[in-house]
Write a structure and sequence with these properties.
Serine Threonine Protein Phosphatase 5, Tetratricopeptide repeat, 17 helices, 44% helix, disordered N terminus
Length: 297
């Protein structure tokens, strides 16, 4: 536990008592605590004095960069480990690389350090996710742009056949109190479209971005998808339109009313000859909340 939090004084006392930290200590220090990061001095002590290999890996196949890449203000420490030969391309047992971790970070400094050493910008993990996938889902528009300019494949698909549109929807966060010049969702969408990704195209299972956005229960997101010219009446492989899905899962009428106002057809039936009205009448959440669905007739 002492090694986990990187208290260099305590580490030195352990060594003085003949208790030499194992290679795992370096990775524990890199992992750190939730509130604090450790100093370059601590890492240098473990590598240069205790003689732990800078390239040490844990049982999951992760090296020190897997832990440092997603943390803020680690530039100096990361440069140190790059100089010690730690591999930014090292895939752990899940196929995740430090580059992928950096792509999902809230700043792009580490990703910029890594890019000159990247061997395959389009490497994918076991789920079929690339660094660009990570950037679209959790990173910044700047990270998305950096990867695209370096040749990241905008048409990458995961093992389930989903394109980056799925991860774009996952990335959506409601607007906070602070106003931003450009919404991250909009910025990412434009970058992807400019590189040729068709965000209006359905996924392998037939779901459109409308279908995927229903679970967010946010009209603002649906408005953004309307701007992307997605077919609001498309059916997925289960024979459901976005309106059908909303009728089955909504807690109130906001999403339903928006979809109708945006052009969702109320008379389309499922494979079981059910309309959105019929599905909404069976929705216990709507019934419990005394929501009238007569507007769906």
């Amino acid at each position: 536990m002492l090694a986990r939090y990187g208290n260099i004084a305590l580490l030195k006392k352990l060594v003085e008592k003949g208790i030499k930290p194992t290679s795992d200590a370096l990775l524990f220090v890199a992992q750190g605590s939730r509130r604090e990061s450790n100093t370059l001095e601590t890492y240098k002590y473990l590598v240069e004095e205790v003689k732990i290999k800078a390239t040490a890996q844990n049982k999951a196949g992760q090296n020190v960069l897997h832990f440092l890449a997603g943390k803020p203000n680690q530039a100096e420490i990361i440069k140190y480990f790059l100089g010690k030969g730690v591999d930014v391309n090292k895939a752990d047992k899940e196929g995740n690389t430090p580059v992928m971790v950096a792509a999902a970070a809230r700043e792009t400094a580490v990703l910029e350090f890594f890019l000159p050493s990247v061997k395959n910008i389009n490497a994918q993990n076991l789920k079929g996710e690339s660094a660009l996938t990570f950037a679209v889902r959790n990173g910044t528009p700047e990270a998305v742009n950096l990867l695209l300019t370096k040749g990241a494949d905008v048409n990458v698909k995961d093992k389930d056949g989903n394109n980056l549109g799925v991860y774009l929807v996952q990335s959506y966060r409601p607007a906070g109190r602070e106003k931003v010049a450009t919404d991250p969702f909009d910025a990412k969408a434009k970058l992807l479209q400019d590189k040729g990704l068709n965000l209006a195209a359905p996924q392998k299972d037939g779901n459109t971005l409308y279908h995927l956005a229903i679970t967010k229960n946010d009209v603002s997101l649906l408005k953004k998808i309307t701007d992307l010219k997605v077919d609001i009446n498309a059916k997925n492989k289960d024979g459901l339109t976005a309106l059908h899905r909303a009728a089955m899962t909504s807690k109130d009428d906001a999403i339903l009313k928006y979809l109708v106002s945006a052009g969702a057809k109320k008379d389309i039936s499922t494979e079981f000859d059910e309309t959105a009205y019929a599905l909404a009448k069976e929705n216990e959440l709507l019934t419990k909340n005394n929501v009238s669905v007569e507007f769906l007739k």
